[in-house]
Amino acid sequence: MKLINTLIAMLTAISVGFSATADVLPPGQTTDASIRRAAKLAELGCDFERDMIGYAINADGSSVTVKCAVLGSMSLQRALLPATVTYEEKSYTVTEIAPEAFRNLSTLSIVAIPATVTRIGKDAFRGCPLQAARISDLRAWCAIIFDNYTANPASVAGCLMLGDEPLTDLVLPDSITKINNHAFDGLTSLRSVVFPEGLRTIGRSAFFGCTGLTELRLPDSIITIDRCAFERCSGLTSVYIGDNAQFIGFGAFRDCSDLRSISMPKGIRTIRHDAFDGVKAKTERRKVKK
Questions:
Q1: For the chain, what is the domain count?
Q2: Which of 124, 168, 191, 213 has the fewest C-beta atoms under 10 angstroms from its C-beta?
Q3: What value, to the nearest 5°, has the Cα angle with vertex 171 and ends 278 and 123?
């Protein structure tokens, strides 16, 4: 009898133990989908997500960085980034796109960049089969800091759209004084550019590989043409450089193989040694009237 009572007590203890732990899942799992989602976002460095895109709140507490594509993002074809997003009843301005944010996203074909974005990190769009990048503000676009070539979705796509129209004949606003690095890098469909008087600097690789350009007339306000600015613009036949130019960087016009005519002021202080490598153009050094 004593043995039977002992067995009953053991079975009761086991039964109680099962009851107490029946709803406990292995570490990292939960029955609450929202908690699982929050944990996944935190693992990716995101504070919240909207339309399959994760955002991280910046240190200023009023803006966010696009961190990555999340939660079923392998079906994401269009990343139409907004200027502002709302989280927990607070609005945040979208100002940055993180390095590698969309890297190798094999479904992504269109991306829209709002005028509020000021920086796009290295390789943000590397390996994406983009067909076009869409913008609404040329002034804001020229001011974006692109950390490298594949940070620029238009360079990856080879096509930049202003609104709903592909940008082939570019007329830059008068307020622009600088075109940042890689701004129009690789846009083979670009046929012409009108530069505003007041433009002082053309950044590194700003028009690299724009093979559709045939003529350039840089305004008298231009001071600096940075390295590789027009490298491999193989369709160029003539270039006029304004009267106040002071610096032409390494490889600025390298491998512009069809270039036949270059007009520049005599007073340029620095022309890097390979600025015109691969060019057989006739060069005129103009005397500038002061």
A1: 1
A2: 168
A3: 60
